[in-house]
Design brief:
single chain, about 375 residues, alpha/beta, 9-stranded mixed beta sheet, 6-stranded mixed beta sheet, 11 helices, about 35% helix
Length: about 375
């Protein structure tokens, strides 16, 4: 007879693996369907900014990368397009780091290795029946479509271009961001305290995407040097350039029953937000933390697919995701508006925000998950 799992997780990314490891600690029977991606010899340019809450979650399953692959950010500089400036400091906030820039391949490798040695998790070559199915397949989830869930997406008029750059000067564990003419450039420090490599994410207008991808490496780096005001000196491209369209999206339902099978969504299968504040994976790991907490704390007689528990999860996570998404969209739209009046207003707002310590510290601590 085929074993029926307590929970079947569909999706083999960071969210799916972390969820499996946390649920397995409660001795639940976990099936993880993590299909292998097609072989790709190109280096992975992704890096995530993870806050203190996400760090604690990954440490709890012993999957936090070493210092070479998880660089603490001690300071953050955000510059507007007309003199606006906001600075955040870990020292001012009395925290060890504002965030950690984590190399994605290193984190994914640790999670896969941990799953291999967890006896309560079975790796599957196809989805299997379970009391509860959790869908963590990402924004293009096919299972979500099969369950008839609408995924309302609003496209931003931008693509994100990501790459790795080596810099003439060390990054000093400082994350940097520039808002300019409706576009956003970010440098995320990599390779530890003395590193001189950054993960670059550049949100460019749709009409310029192909031009930026087709530009020569030298011309591309010259543009980045100009936009970054030469703060790290000469830049050299050391990876392919990757691009994807930016959107804000949220599933109409995060829980439900389809063909007699209870299900829940988590991570990008449930929501996506603009990357300008680096909150995407933090929100996904927030889903993991909330769902595992609710299932761990349930009364012994409640099954893992109890609809009251799942609704509790949906309400809690929708509230936070909706608030974060609204804030990201408002910022993107504010800096996308043309005209001298809007430019002066937003930079005046940045200067005022910098001077009001209480508001700045509150926003920083919220972003850090504190």
């Amino acid at each position: 007879m085929t074993q029926r799992f307590d929970i079947c997780i569909r999706g083999g990314g960071i969210v799916g693996h972390a969820l499996a490891l946390l649920l397995a600690r409660d001795r639940l029977r976990i099936g993880l369907f993590a299909p292998e991606m097609p072989a790709n010899n190109e280096p992975d340019v992704r890096a995530y900014a993870l806050n203190a809450k996400s760090k604690a979650l990954l440490e709890s399953v012993r999957c936090w990368p070493d210092l070479a692959h998880a660089t603490p950010v001690l300071d953050m500089e955000v510059k507007g397009d007309d003199g606006g400036l906001v600075n955040f400091s870990a020292t001012e906030l009395a925290v060890p780091a504002l965030t950690w820039i984590v190399d994605v391949p290193a984190l994914e490798a640790q999670l896969r290795e941990a799953v291999r040695f967890q006896p309560h998790i079975e790796l599957l070559d196809a989805p299997r029946p379970a009391t509860l199915t959790v869908v963590c397949e990402g924004k293009a989830s096919r299972t979500r479509e099969e369950f008839g869930v609408e995924f309302a997406a609003t496209r931003y008029p931008q693509h994100a271009i990501a790459a790795r750059l080596t810099c003439e000067k060390p990054h000093g564990q400082v994350a940097r961001q520039w808002f300019t003419q409706g576009e956003i450039l970010a440098f995320l420090p990599l390779h530890g305290a003395r590193g001189n490599t950054v993960a670059m994410v550049w949100s460019v207008r749709d009409g310029r995407t192909l031009e930026m991808l087709d530009d020569s490496e030298d011309a591309f780096c010259e543009q980045i040097e100009h936009l970054s005001q030469g703060v790290l000196g000469k830049l050299t491209l050391v990876s392919p350039r990757k691009a994807w369209p930016l959107q804000s999206a949220q599933a109409s339902r995060w829980i439900g029953v389809a063909d007699g099978q209870s299900w829940a969504l988590a991570g990008d299968a449930a929501h996506t937000v603009h990357p300008l504040a680096g909150q995407g994976l933090n929100l996904g790991l927030g889903d993991v933390a909330e769902l595992t907490h609710i299932l761990h704390s349930r009364a012994y007689w409640r099954p893992v697919n109890d609809v009251r528990l799942l609704r509790q999860y949906e309400r809690a996570r929708k509230t936070e995701v909706t608030a974060t998404d609204a804030a990201m969209t408002a910022l993107q739209q504010l800096f996308d508006k043309p005209g001298d009046g809007w430019q002066k207003l937003r930079n005046w707002g940045m200067s005022g925000f910098e001077q009001v310590g209480f508001s700045k510290h509150w926003a920083a601590r919220r972003a850090m998950g504190i």
